[in-house]
Amino acid sequence: MGPQVALLVGALAGCLLPARGCLMCDQRVVEALDSLDKEYLPTHMAPERHKEVMETIRHTVRNFWDLPYSEDTFMGVIDEATMETSVLGFLRSVRLTTNSGIADDTFVKEFSWMLTLEKAAFQRNVARFQREAFCPNKCGTMLQPLIWCSNCKKELHVCRKPYDCGVRHVNVHEKEDMILDCELNWHKLSEGLTNYSFYRVWGSNSETLVYEGKQPTLTKLLVSPEDAGTYRCELGTVRSGPATIIHFQVTVLPQRIIAKTMPMSSTFATRAKAEEEIGVDLSPTQEPSECSKPESVQRGRLIGLLIWCFLLLIIGFVTGVLFFRYGMMVDSINSWFGTDKAAAAQD
Amino acid sequence: MERWWQLLLGLWTVAPIWAGDKLLNVCMNTKHHKQKPGPEDKLYEECIPWKDNACCTASTSWEAHLDVSLLYNFSLIHCGLMMPGCEKHFNQAVCFYECSPNLGPWIQKMDLSGPGERILDVPLCQEDCEEWWEDCRTSYTCKSNWHSDWDWSRGKNRCPRRAVCHPFPHYFPTPADLCEKIWNNSFKASPERRNSGLCLQKWFEPAQDNPNVAVAHHFASTAPPWEISYTLLAFTLFLSFLS
Questions:
Q1: Sign of CA pseudo-dihedral B100, B104, B107, B112
Q2: Do residues A26 and A88 lie in contact, with contact meaning Cβ atoms separated by under 8 Å?
Q3: Looking at beta carbons, which residues of chain B come within 8 Å of A240?
Q4: FRET partner for A202 with CA separation of 20 to 30 A, picked from A341, B1, B34, B240?
């Protein structure tokens, strides 16, 4: 009777006391505390205080998760990433304290202070997780793997948000490609997802399956007006309900026509486009000459050359004539002077 | 004169069976229930077993699964997130309550003036209460009676000031406590086991037929419809005085 009662009490007590506490779920933390107990304290603490100090430390770490419940700060769960950050920070702090080699009262004071800071850091990490990473889906159902601090179990939590993920309006021109994208940013974070299915919706109650598979997008090449209408995509789960349902309202716009005017301008357009695609960086000065490369340029140059030659010829001719004339003029002037002198000399 | 006696006697025997039929395949009169039970092809998850004949709509079945149920603004996460195994039982219980067309014999009027109705002492099979209790051992709550004394100041229920969160067994030491005190004795922990025909299951495999139909039948026919009985008795006595 006696031992059975004791066992029962012990079992009940086990149920009542906060069993593990978040950080203690990690084996590395347990080992660090064991090493503190078995290796550090025997050499840095009086034997009569050893046990009590160790129990206080264990109790404090176990109570890290003793935080008020609120959807903004803590709901008794964390994810793997938050656990990792918190554990590494804690281990680093423990190492720093033990590396300093302090003992007795100094140790107790420093270690208590370190634990206070670590608990505050843990609280901050958890609040950040709760605000930003907990059930990040804004619609649909997400299966998120979480760790429960109470018993260290890692299980899938079902994040249920408003059922429908809405309607997307898609406009696509005729003869172009239509792409319907069903992927939301949390799909990669969720577990338990199966296939994407795209359905073409006719009227109020009938649908035909268009695609089912792992690809989150449905592509239709060279759309025609018959492709306009309502489409529905669904991401399945290993459970019974879907993870996401999105409707697409597709409108097919008239075909885009590229304007065709003069040949020059069209070549200009194709060339400019070709340059864009290749990524050639043209300086503005080069462009006009680049633009007018063909025969017209050469012809212009030829004509210019001819004109210059002609001009040069004319100038040469005129100069020659002038010289000749000049010569004659000089002779005539000389002869006139000469006769003058002769006349003067005769007098 | 003998004719009258025979007629009344006949009525007396027929009346219970006739009244009993009114308790079968009915829906409660509440905000979320349908008027009459019927097939539903788009029920969500734990409500799927009732697809052939249900008192709940597809959207009600979806809302039954939310952490803070839109049906009653009641928060199951008042002491942090529940373990998925425990949450499943609550979803099943809400589906049972919203969708089952076999609760007729236990429907009571909320108050004599208004139209609202509730269920009282629906006998749940022993396995149902036990599995529910077992799977919720590692989840937390802060009250042993969920009917009243919540802090509703912020729209949904929160633990009252001095109520500390402890694992379920602390506030519900036995499976019977859990079944009965969760919803103010809507459920009763029956000592009967499944397939005995004397207790209802809060959930069953979607592939099997609803085992609660036969159970409701049994309870409906044995239930004494006291209004009719007493009326007939009074009438009989009155006639006997006359003759």
A1: positive
A2: no
A3: 44-45, 48
A4: B34
Residue whose entry in the numeric block shows the structure tokens 């809507």: B186
Q: Mean pLDDT throughout A304-329?
A: 82
Q: Which residue of B has its CA nearest to A75?
A: B80
Contact A160 B65 (CB under 8 A): yes
Q: How many CB atoms are closer than 10 A to CB B199?
A: 25
Q: Helix crossing, B126-135 with B175-182: angle to 10°?
A: 90
CB atoms inside a 10 Å sphere around CB B126 = 19
- Minimal Cα distance from B64: which residue of A? A160
Adjacent-strand bridge partners of B68: B75
Q: What is the ipTM of this complex?
A: 0.81
**CB A39, CB A54: distance < 8 Å:** no
**A150:B66 CB<8 A:** no
The nearest alpha carbon in chain A to B137 belongs to: A15
| Ordered domains of chain A (ranges, CATH) | 16-133 (no CATH), 157-253 (2.60.40.10)
End-to-end Cα separation, chain A, in angstroms: 179
B48 and A240 within 8 Å at the Cβ level: the answer is yes
Tokens of B197: 């025909």
**pLDDT tens string B139-185:** 999 999 888 888 888 888 889 988 999 999 999 999 999 999 988 89
How far, in Å, CA of A270 to CA of A281, rounded?
16
pLDDT tens track for A42-71: 888 888 989 999 999 999 999 988 888 888
Report the distance separating Cα A22 and Cα A64, nearest Å. Answer: 7
CB contact under 8 A, B80 and A160: no
Strands A217-220 and A178-181 turn out to be antiparallel
